[in-house]
Amino acid sequence: MKLTSLIVLFLGLVNFHQAIAKNTSSGLRFPSERLVFHQESRGLSFLLKNNDQNAYLVQADIAVPDESTGLNVKKENAIPFIITPPLYRLEAKSEYSWQIKKIDNLKKLPQDRESVFFIRLKAIPPKGTKNTVNFKKMDGNLTLSKVLHYKFYYRPETIKNLRIANVKDKLKFTVSEGKLIVDNQSPLYLTLGKLAVGQHQIDNMQLFKFIPPFGQQSYPLPKGNYANATVKWRLLNEFMLEMPEQTQKL
Fold first, then answer.
1. Has residue 96 got a pLDDT over 80?
2. Where are the alpha helices (DSSP H) in the chain?
3. Whose CB has fewer CB within 10 Å in the chain, the N or C terminal residue?
4. Residue 94 and residue 48 in contact, taking contact as beta carbons nearer than 8 Å
5. What does pTM read for this prediction?
6. For the Pili assembly chaperone C-terminal domain, which residue ranges apply (predicted)?
7. Is the peptide bond between 110 and the residue preceding it cis, with omega within 30 degrees of 0?
8. CA–CA dist 197, 48 (Å, integer)
9. 148-164 per-position pLDDT tens digit
10. Quick check: 24 pLDDT over 50?
11. Distances from the Cα of 8 to the Cαs of 15, 22, 43, 113, in angstroms?
12. Domain 7-159 matches domain 164-245 at the CATH topology level
């Protein structure tokens, strides 16, 4: 199964999440790859394709994801990166490459592990001429926007050449208080494409919760006896493709 970190949020009277297993949303497409900003890099570029018949006015910024859910955004004032340009009109059937640049000393970030950030693009459907932006009105005069989130990772020099395949055996699994606890003993953020305990398959929505470096993630389990159950999982590699299945006995 191909799974990316792309999340679609429709903003209206309330905010709600719709997580999807493909990297498209109404024709807006991110790259199917893991974006990594290395310590020595001067910048990082990423492409967004618009396969729609409509243009979008795209507002771009950077946020910090909530590690406990993989979906929400934490309040964070000191983000050492910016995206340029912050505002761009993406025409129908076109593509554009944004730039991520550092604006602060990256040594303030942890130097023994990756750090994770969200690329956050708010796509507003305009109408009118290229020089005039009039927001499209929906039922009840509600403006509907799409907020696209895509992760990128900062990687310090000390782990520059490390690959996910190098740390694939660094996950340990236990069950506690009705939850599957995954312990990541590596310096990389890891994402699962599939995860099952015995006969129970972990829902895809739960798999958006990435596993932080030298940290833990938990996944709720239905009531049952998991003693001696087998955990089966597949990690996602740098191209967001599933790696060979791995197993561990609880």
1. yes
2. none
3. N
4. no
5. 0.83
6. 182-239
7. no
8. 36
9. 889 999 999 999 999 99
10. no
11. 11, 11, 26, 28
12. yes
Is it the case that residue 104 has pLDDT exceeding 60? yes
Cα–Cα–Cα angle for 41, 30, 157, nearest 5°? 20
In this structure, which amino acid lies at residue 77?
N
Q: By three-state DSSP, how is residue 204 classified?
A: coil
Helix (H, G, I), strand (E, B) or coil at 203: coil
Give the model confidence (pLDDT) of 190-218 as tens digits: 999 999 999 999 999 999 899 999 999 99
CA distance 6 to 49: 14
Q: Kindly state the tokens that stand for 133.
A: 């932006």
Whether the Cβ atoms of residue 163 and residue 238 lie closer than 8 Å to each other: yes
Domain ranges of the chain: 7-159, 164-245
Q: Of 193, 198, 190, nearest to 170 (Cα)?
A: 190
* Statement: 164-245 belongs to CATH 2.60.40.10: yes
CATH code of the domain occupying 7-159: 2.60.40.10
Ordered DSSP codes for 46-83:
EEEEE-SSS-EEEEEEEEEE-TTTSSSEE--S---EEE
